[in-house]
Amino acid sequence: MDAFALLIAATLNAGTVLAIAGLGLLINERAGVVNLGAEGLMLVAAIAGFATAVHTGSDLAAFAAGITAGALLAAAFGWLVIWLNTNQYATGLALSLFGAGFSAFVGQRFTQERLGERLKFEIPVLADIPFIGPALFRQHPMVYLAIAGTAALAWFLCRSRAGLVLRAVGESPESAHALGYPVRRIRLAAVIAGGALCGLAGAYISVVYTPLWVEGMVAGKGWIALALTTFATWRPARILLGAYLFGGVTMLQFHLQGEGVEIPTQALAMLPYLATIVVLVLISRNPTWIRINMPASLGKPFHPGS
Fold it and tell me: Where are the transmembrane segments (predicted)?
């Protein structure tokens, strides 16, 4: 039971990375913009956050650095695709490649650095409950913030005026423009907000999840987060559930290794990506269902006055 409680706790921790990044990409796509550069954003934010943590010793400063790095790169991406009308898919891939190369270059001097003793968090009283305490109530505060953020985003998109305008821009930018809404500025704000969340996820990886810097340490999590938006049919609550599903698959490989299961480590390492492929294949069998839930103008450029 103790091992199972630890597996649940590790699943929540691993899923938090995907949830935060997935929520950011959801905001982008609800506004009609596809950002394939999440992997690069997260890598640059990871090295920005780790370098800041090394120099300041502050996790909050590290998170702020990651958010800033993600927002700045996303702003550059948004300027290219929204104002200069470059292809969203090609620009996103270029951003991903740039982020991988830039983070590897900048991170060379930080490969031997180690962060200080990590603080241990727990909720008083609740953390002492057998099984439930170790599984649920000894998590980093960011785990609980991701859950709260999911609820807040769901409310924002469905209940607030600004959220409804954001969705309208993703569904029909021409109609939103005709009503007087600044479509391009709304899309840029959505892209920057999404980039900031991807940056927070990247900083969380290097500062909390695995407190060190290794080249390419995001290891495909940006792509999995991108797949999550389709898996969740662009709904925040399903993003969170999907993140925990993929987080559980990721942690299962380490749990099985710890239990001495005789499976090649390479096969176990494939599990998260295999699960992603299987889920996408199952979803793609019903294209009508995807089309009904997908923002109608996703990936389509908007030219005012055209």
Answer: 35-54, 61-83, 89-107, 142-158, 188-207, 213-232, 239-257, 263-283
